[in-house]
Specification:
single chain; two-stranded antiparallel ribbon; 70% helix; 4% strand
Length: 205
């Protein structure tokens, strides 16, 4: 299995496994908790739509920041902000400022993370092993996707939302640790010509 020889991809897959564990756990009860917290069903759907809409407002900043700092710091920041959203979620009680804060934190975290994660994975991965490496990542995500809802549901029932979502936040923050062993990827500020097959990028430690 030559595709396991890429240490950076292996670390990224460990990161994604932890990240997916929280998404399938805390993320599965996201909307349900908002309903229990006093937000109406239309309000929950509006909040989720607002998170998606706000991503477009923050996305133009990503290319500029990626060219200045590289992809790795942005993925780390996105991971940590995504972790914070579960702490903000516990403060929501009906429609109010905490719900607005949740929308902003969630949209910023999602924008930073998902916009840069896929580019970072593609940059450190191997072109000739791309399918194998992505398949290994998704297989891991599916396995933890079974465990996540069970563990989080149990914690919500036994210990309540503060402990359950607090554990989700801490666990997702720990997903940033594998990046300590991966390289940064610099992004070119400009690309000359339109025939390039791949965007210029350089690795640095």
């Amino acid at each position: 299995m030559a595709f396991f020889r890429n240490r950076s991809v292996n670390l990224l897959n460990i990161h994604y496994g932890i990240f997916a564990l929280v998404l399938s756990g805390g993320g599965a009860f996201y909307g349900v908790y908002l309903l229990r917290a006093g937000v109406s069903a239309p309000g929950v759907l509006t909040a989720l739509a607002a998170i998606t809409l706000c991503r477009f407002a923050f996305r133009p900043a990503i290319p500029f920041l990626a060219a200045r700092f590289g992809l790795k710091p942005l993925v780390i920041v996105g991971t940590l902000i995504c972790a914070c959203q579960y702490l903000v979620l516990t403060q929501v009680h009906g429609v109010g400022w905490p719900l607005l804060a949740l929308i902003i934190v969630s949209s910023v975290g999602d924008t930073f993370y998902w916009t840069t994660y896929h580019a970072y994975f593609a940059s450190v991965g191997d072109d000739h092993h791309r399918g194998h490496q992505i398949s290994a990542r998704e297989a891991l995500a599916q396995v933890v996707g079974i465990v996540g809802p069970l563990v989080t549901g149990w914690m919500l029932t036994v210990y309540g939302p503060l402990v359950a979502f607090g554990a989700s936040s801490v666990t997702m923050a720990c997903a940033a640790l594998p990046f300590l062993g991966t390289p940064n990827v610099k992004v070119a500020k400009s690309v000359s010509g339109a025939s390039a097959q791949r965007a210029p990028a350089s690795f640095c430690s």
